[in-house]
Design the sequence.
């Protein structure tokens, strides 16, 4: 998804995402038990470190863990129980100043775990509309914030003499 904002305008929304945190910026009734997703950057949720839990649903261990990240560039989550399950977020700055926001969830199918053969196809069907809404929610919030905070590098300098 192309977002008319810089990576540093999008990153704070990604860092605070999660159930019981800022929400998923998606269909809140399903993703956040009816609690509205945040419409502002929440300073108390801006720290991220490898090993941090990103809650996906209720419960203290329901979620994915931050595996690694590069601020304003990418973040990788992983599932400790099913190690090959990952969720990646990436921000690619475009020459026109917009950013390409890309996300990818990868989960293995296993004949040894028959439940995964039922669960994962259902997850994929439900995930598309939810993820699309999430990306649109991030886009709207980041673009709104980017407009509200002018880029000082394009504001012309005003001499003190002109102000007097």
Sequence:
């Amino acid at each position: 998804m192309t977002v008319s904002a810089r990576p540093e305008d999008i990153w704070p929304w990604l860092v605070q995402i999660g159930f019981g945190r800022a929400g998923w910026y998606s269909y809140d009734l399903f993703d956040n038990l009816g609690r509205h997703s945040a419409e502002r950057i929440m300073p108390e949720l801006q720290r991220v470190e490898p090993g941090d839990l990103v809650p996906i649903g209720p419960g203290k261990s329901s979620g994915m863990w931050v595996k690694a990240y590069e601020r304003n560039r990418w973040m990788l989550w992983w599932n400790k129980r099913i190690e090959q399950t990952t969720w990646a977020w990436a921000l690619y700055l475009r020459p026109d100043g917009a950013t390409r926001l890309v996300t990818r969830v990868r989960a293995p199918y296993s004949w040894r775990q028959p439940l995964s053969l039922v669960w994962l196809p259902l997850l994929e069907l439900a995930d598309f509309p939810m993820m699309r809404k999430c990306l649109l929610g991030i886009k709207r919030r980041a673009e709104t914030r980017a407009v509200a905070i002018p880029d000082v590098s394009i504001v012309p300098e005003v001499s003190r003499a002109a102000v007097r």
Q: What stands out?
A: Confidence is low (pLDDT under 50) at residues 151-164. The radius of gyration is 19 Å. The helical segments are 7-15, 28-31, 114-148, 160-163.
